[in-house]
Amino acid sequence: MLGKMKVEKKFLSKDKWHSVTRVFRYIRPYLGYFIFGMIMLALSSVILMVFLFVAGEMANAANGESRFGLPVRDYGWVFLILLVAQAAFSYLRTVSMAIVSENGMADLRKDLFNKIATLPYPYFESKRIGELTSRITNDIEKLQNTFSVTLAEFLRQIITLVIGIAVLAWLAPRLSLIMLASIPVVVLVAMVFGRYIRKISKERQDQMADSNTIAEEVLQNFQIVKSFTNEYVESLRYSRSIKEVVEISIRYAKWRGFFFMFVITLLFGGIFFVLWQGALMVESGDMKLGDLFSFIMYTGMIGGAIAGLGSLTTQLIGAIGATDRVFEILDQEHEIELSKPLKTYPRFNGTVSFADVSFAYPSRPEITVLKDIDIHIESGQTIALVGASGAGKSTLTSLLLRLYDYDRGIISIDGEDVRQIDLTTLRRNMALVPQDISLFAGSIRENILYGRPDASEEEVVDAARNANALDFINEFPDGLDTIVGERGAKVSGGQRQRIAIARALLRDPAILILDEATSSLDAESEQLVQLALDTLMKGRTSIIIAHRLSTVRNVDQIYVLAQGEIVESGTHDELMSNQHGAYNQLARLQLETD
Ligand SMILES: Nc1ncnc2c1ncn2[C@@H]1O[C@H](COP(=O)(O)OP(=O)(O)OP(=O)(O)O)[C@@H](O)[C@H]1O
Q1: Are residues 148 and 218 in the same domain?
Q2: Which of 132, 226, 390, 557 has its CA 20 to 30 A from that of 148?
Q3: Whose CA is nearest to atom 3 of ligand 1?
Q4: How many angstroms separate the Cα of 268 from the Cα of each of 115, 183, 275, 391?
Q5: Which parts pass through the membrane (predicted)?
Q6: What is the pLDDT of residues 159-182, one digit of tens each?
Q7: Burial class (CB in 10 A: 0-12, 13-18, 19+), 331
Q8: What is the mean pLDDT of residues 472-499?
């Protein structure tokens, strides 16, 4: 245990180091730019240091103590040359580092996106969507910053430190010792202090976020707050939270005030002390005035470099964490290879059979969600799955789509075990019309084309017509180009369903899975949707997850599920004739609630 903790505490464990070298692989194609950028950065940093030295030397020249005999008036040219060179180096560095980081990180981002898109379904359940998005956005952003700025800044500060200390030691060794014994110490103390203050600032932000959540919640559930007349309770909750924000803010302000007092007093105290010692040396003739001038400026640079290195190290550690998280996903096993879709696939006949299938979700292995399921569907038949909520209807269809692998039994299509069928071929032969239809944010055309991206305009129009959608689409001024809004919010529920049906029609699947919408539409819209569904089901094997029994009267076979088991099966009439059967009970219950 102790040994393990020690390993975890190490700044760069072997695994982490491995991730770092892997991320550098993304930089390798742009290595030339990377090296060039680093050289430009080194040159511009050196020039900055030379600049400070030349400024001091100019003061020496003005004081009649020039080292190189260059008259003061010529310093203008020297500065000009240095400035132009510095500008050119900085520009070249910024551009070349951007080429490296933008391209390298875009490659990494694409790899990550492709990996996420091809991961098996259960992976998404174990992660929150926000977490995965954050990998593509925040983590890669962090790495991008590292390659465009942090690494370069790190190098710059090291150069500043090395050159700075070397020049100081050469200019005035004794004063350098005095300076090195005071300024870096103050800077280090200030950094630790600064970190503590950042912690309080974070606390303040968190508390503020909590208060904002209360406000947001109230706004989102305005109707509920009003109907329960809970305005006063909410007001209390909000003011309590805001009060805490104020308390933390004041504590934060006090520490900040103290921090600035500390920094100004000690840091400036240190600088003045060095300045004073230097002035004494100038007075006694041990140091030139211009050198003291350079000395103080170098001291400032060194102090800045030490502080900079501290925060850059924190950023680099953060970037290593980000690298780790990104590679954790990249190392997952994907379920399909990402390749250009084939135009044609072997088409199934559509005979589906579940033989003795049992299943438990990987996240809850102790609960058997489906037990010994036996279902046989002939090609072109329609069956319905009915049963209480949580009975296992959706799970059954997820297994057919092979979103999960089952534990026992065999699911086969046209006599072949689905586990032996190529996943893309399997899913290409199916279409799912889900319960909650959420469209992509583009146009109606794009949403229909999602069923088969290479379909012609004529096929799209045909699909829309057969889905009873063409009339309402044509009524929109932009027709098929109408933008449906985020998740399809700008079209009605019934229209969304018909767009989804058109999409499924365009796909022309051998097997159709239909999760009936629970929220009811008005009678007219319902009829239009039902007619569209009838067209869609024609000539295919269809599995309907039915919530309303009225829609399953004409199906070939109904399976009643209860707690993961099939408790009854038969046609509507057969099942209704069993007075004490589960289906009969469900039907009576629905009659009562309708
Ligand atoms: N991803 C999951 N991980 C773990 N358990 C799950 C998961 N999805 C569903 N379950 C559980 O499996 C059981 C069957 O759920 P399923 O969604 O198949 O029921 P359903 O009959 O389709 O219900 P509904 O009519 O409400 O959609 C439920 O007990 C549910 O809690």
Answers
A1: no
A2: 132
A3: 361
A4: 53, 9, 10, 73
A5: 30-55, 75-92, 154-172, 178-197, 258-280, 292-312
A6: 999 999 998 899 888 888 888 888
A7: exposed
A8: 84
In the prediction, which pLDDT does 530 show? 81
Q: Is the pLDDT of residue 342 over 70?
A: no
Find out whether the beta carbon of 14 lies less than 6 Å from any atom of ligand 1. Answer: no
Residue 542 parent element (H or E): strand 541-545
pLDDT at 175: 87
- How does 513-549 read in b/e, with b if 16+ C-beta sit within 10 Å? bbbbbeeebeeebbebbeebbebbbeebbbbbbbbeb
Pocket test for ligand 1, best of 361, 373, 400 (most atoms within 8 A of CB): 361
Nearest CA to ligand 1 atom 7: 361
Indicate whether 394 and 516 sit together in one domain: yes
Q: For residue 21, give the CATH number of its domain.
A: 1.20.1560.10
Confidence of residue 7 (pLDDT cuts 50, 70, 90): very low
pLDDT tens for 346-399 read: 889 989 999 999 999 988 889 999 999 999 999 999 999 998 888 999 999 999
Q: Are 475 and 569 part of one and the same domain?
A: yes
Domain assignment present for residue 35? The answer is yes
Rounded to the nearest angstrom, the distance between the alpha carbon of 395 and the centre of ligand 1 is 6
Cα distances (angstroms) measured from residue 93 to each of 25, 34, 85, 99, 156: 21, 9, 12, 10, 12
Does 305 map to a domain?
Answer: no
Residue 325 lies in a domain: yes
Q: Does ligand 1 have an atom closer than 6 angstroms to the CB of 519?
A: no
One domain, residues 123 and 206: no
Closest ligand 1 atom to 392 CA: 18
pLDDT of residue 99: 94
Same domain, yes or no, for 389 and 421? yes
Whether the ipTM is more than 0.90: the answer is yes
Going by alpha carbons, the residue nearest to atom 6 of ligand 1 is 361
Pocket test for ligand 1, best of 394, 435, 515 (most atoms within 8 A of CB): 394
Domain that holds residue 99: 12-172+312-337
Give the chain's domain count: 3
Quick one: which atom of ligand 1 is closest to the CA of 387?
21
Q: The domain that contains 375 carries what CATH number?
A: 3.40.50.300
In a domain, 7, yes or no: no
- Ligand 1 centre distance from Cα of residue 342 (Å): 34
Quick check: helix, strand or coil at residue 392?
A: coil
Asked whether the beta carbons of 484 and 499 are under 8 A apart, the reply is yes
Judge if 393 and 464 occupy the same domain.
Answer: yes
Residue 396 CA: nearest ligand 1 atom is 18
Best residue among 123, 367, 393 to mutate for probing ligand 1's pocket (most ligand atoms within 8 Å of CB) is 393
Nearest atom in ligand 1 to the alpha carbon of residue 125 is 1
Q: Which of 158-162, 247-251, 316-320, 586-590 has the lowest mean pLDDT?
A: 586-590
Nearest CA to ligand 1 atom 9: 395
**Going by C-beta distance under 8 Å and a sequence separation of 6 or more, which residues neighbour residue 406?**
357, 358, 359, 370, 399
